[in-house]
Specification:
Elements (H helix, E strand, L loop, with lengths): L3 H9 L1 H13 L10 H15 L2 E5 L6 E6 L7 E7 L19 E3 L2 E3 L7 H18 L5 E7 L9 H7 L8 E4 L11 E3 L1 E2 L1 E10 L5 E2 L10 H10 L22 H9 L4 H8 L8 H9 L5 E7 L9 E2 L2 E10 L5 H15 L4 E8 L2 E2 L5 H14 L4 E3 L9 H6 L4 E3 L15 E3 H22 L1
Parallel strand pairs: 3-6, 3-7, 7-18, 8-17
Antiparallel strand pairs: 1-2, 2-6, 4-5, 5-19, 9-16, 10-14, 10-15, 11-13, 12-14
Helix pairs in contact: 1-4, 2-4, 4-13, 7-9, 11-13
Length: about 450
């Protein structure tokens, strides 16, 4: 047997594999609303057991983790595969062209909530195990699988789960398939993620709204209070002025600088896809800002009247939501303390609320296992993958790199326009099958190098 046989097996089983995916997609699993989560975890456990994966549900303080393993030899190379079975709410429902929990194929894509994020990619990983074993007779390495049910709710209990199960989760590499492929259509190999800190600030004025003329200059406007505070937080060059904000940022290595320079970039194409035609930077600056620099973003600002026409009032309250994407080695807890200290110094009456956080993560690019995975992905897609030091967004990758001390790579299988979190979420039919094939190639090459 050789790797070419993998494609033949997948081709013969396309209808079967699609129906297995559709079964999982039809089962609701909305973590934010606790809809269908328990039923989905049981269904996933049953599907994994049918394939021959030793599987069990492990309870957490929230939704259960579905844990599976096939141990060839306790001393053999061990690959830990991570994914999540929970999905976002489907709202707004009237924007879906087909029912959000009834998988529908249109124009070569499977439309359904969870199709791209993350059930389609999760099932590609699971079905790769069946495909590989049925083709070669056995796995060349140990496989462990962790599928959580809270990723769409900030993975609140994943860190404690990992802390409590360090022995169970011992491995040599963590492999995640989540998110979209590169906008060029090329496969990705991502070596990390940015972290996040999400906060809410509330400024209060009078006990109720007042007439903007009769009480103008008398009653303070809380919107201006927030605006005045924001002016102390960032200068005109977009540099954050919070003391110590940049203290712990690791400079990119020479290897990472080389990788960034080699990344493909089409300014006009990117500008069109993000809806900002005024984009004015080269590829090196674009990727450096996206992977190596933190952000300081206003996600929402609410105050006063926002309806049609005029309403002349002084609002009684203003609320600001901010997210900060953090890079290695910024600590979200440390940044939150510095943020609060800044607010206390400049606007002590403003209330700060911590809404969520996740640490950044990065695996060094010079590790041998990175080369092995990159070559396997290239071989599977017959195309050189885009190797990127970090994803611009956030995943709970730090639980593997910081708590377990393992290298971790993210290889997305979904198409760039998967519309995850949006109405009409989808995954390309061929993306799904390519994901099965790619995971098989990664397993094969890891096994070959481990021998």
């Amino acid at each position: 047997m050789n790797l070419s046989e993998i494609s033949n097996v997948i081709e013969q089983r396309k209808d079967q594999y699609l129906e297995q995916l559709f079964t999982l997609l039809r089962q609701k699993s909305i973590s934010a609303q606790n809809i269908g989560i328990r039923d989905c975890s049981r269904l996933l456990k049953s599907m994994m057991e049918d394939i021959g994966i030793n599987t069990r549900l492990i309870e957490t303080d929230g939704h259960p983790v579905v844990y599976g393993e096939i141990i060839k030899d306790p001393d053999a190379f061990t690959l830990l595969i991570y994914g999540h079975y929970d999905v976002q709410p489907p709202d707004p429902l009237d924007e879906w062209l087909s029912p959000p929990f009834e998988p529908t194929i249109r124009n070569g894509k499977i439309f359904c909530r969870g199709a791209g994020d993350n059930k389609g990619q999760l099932m590609a990983q699971i079905l790769s195990i069946k495909t590989y074993v049925d083709t070669f007779g056995e796995l060349p390495i140990n496989i462990k699988m962790v599928f959580e049910g809270e990723e769409e709710s900030a993975s609140a209990n994943l860190p404690s789960f990992v802390e409590q199960n360090k022995e169970l989760l011992k491995a040599d590499l963590v492999y995640t398939s989540d998110g979209p492929m590169h906008d060029s259509g090329a496969p990705y190999v991502l070596l990390g993620v940015r972290g996040i800190l999400y906060v809410e600030l509330t400024a209060k004025g009078a006990d109720w709204e007042n007439h903007s003329g009769n009480k103008g200059n008398i009653v303070p406007n809380p919107a201006w209070t927030l605006i005045d505070l924001l002016r102390t937080m960032r200068d005109k060059n977009e540099r954050v002025l919070i003391e110590g904000f940049y203290d712990d940022i690791c400079k990119p290595t020479e290897k990472e600088k080389e990788i960034i320079k080699e990344l493909p970039f089409d300014r006009e194409q990117v500008a069109e896809k993000i809806g900002y035609k005024q984009l004015d930077m080269d590829g090196e600056a674009y990727y450096h800002k996206l992977t190596m620099e933190p952000t300081f973003n206003i996600a929402g600002f609410t105050s006063g009247y926002g309806g049609e026409g005029a309403k002349t009032i002084i609002p009684s309250q203003a609320t600001l939501k901010m997210d900060m994407r953090l890079v290695v080695d910024q600590d979200p807890d440390d940044i939150y303390k510095k943020f609060c200290a800044h607010v206390k110094k400049h606007a002590p009456d403003i209330e700060v609320k911590h809404l969520g956080a996740m640490a950044p993560s990065r695996t060094p690019a010079n590790q041998e296992v990175v080369d092995i995975v990159t070559k396997a992905v290239s071989e599977s897609f017959n195309q050189k993958p885009v190797l990127q030091p970090s994803l611009g967004g956030s995943l709970p990758d730090y639980v593997w790199t910081k708590i377990l001390g393992l290298p971790s790579v993210v290889v997305p299988y979904a198409n760039f326009d998967e519309a995850n979190h949006s109405p009409n979420e989808n995954i390309g039919v061929e993306n799904f099958f390519d994901g099965i094939k790619c995971t098989c190639h990664v397993i094969y090459r890891l096994g070959e190098c481990a021998r």
